[in-house]
Amino acid sequence: MQSEQTIRVHSYESMGTYDGPGLRLVVFLQGCNFRCLYCANPDTLPCRGGTPTPPREILAKAMSEKPFFGKKGGITFSGGEPTLQAAALVPLFRQLKENGIHICLDTNGSIRSKDAEELFALTDLVLLDIKEFCDERHRLLTGQSNSATLETAARLEAAGRPMWLRYVLVPGYSDFREDILALCRHFGDYRMVERVEILPYHTFGVHKYAALGQPYALDGVKENTPEQIEAARSLFAEYFPEVRVNR
Ligand code: SF4
User: Fold this and answer.
1) Which atom of ligand 1 lies nearest, measured to the CA of 32?
2) What is the pLDDT of residues 132-150, one digit of tens each?
3) CATH homologous superfamily for 7-245?
């Protein structure tokens, strides 16, 4: 390993089936620049924290689990926002690739830097989280504009990097028909979008806010009804060949 830089890891999930194809080792990294109102992992948000981990430890863990990955699986970096640690991740990604491990990067796509560009170039499949297409509602939901995310999507498309778009469907915040339609029209002719994943809104992380002594901003927002999920799914399905509801 060329770099001595450690990587701040929040936690691991082995045999994950939720974040990318096949069975995966999911590495949740510490630190995020967004503040999504529904974030299910508020403990990953502060950049200070997590466990400083030598990249070789993550490589060794991935190698030990490689026999379970099969043809489709591999490693996924999630968070938090992994690209905040792009400089430390680049040498690790190189080593993972040299060892034939498929890499997914679950990202909000908002970090624009040379290191982040390099990281995307080493990634086999980008799981790009689009939080909202309307910038005003995006700012309300995340505290940030969506412009950098949309630019990242355009760059990935131009560079021929495969991506799945991930969309959290929050009642009253990101389930507006006109916004989903605008998103569909924007991305409808992207060749590199292999799949759209709808992530229904859930409240699994609410107890973490209580544990942190923080208020939960979406208190009272109910999980999606089957009808709301189907309405979004059928809208996306008009524009994209593959749409999955990822629960
Ligand atoms: S981008 Fe992800 S980790 Fe960051 S605040 Fe939003 S949901 Fe949480």
Assistant:
1) 4
2) 999 999 999 999 999 999 9
3) Aldolase class I (3.20.20.70)
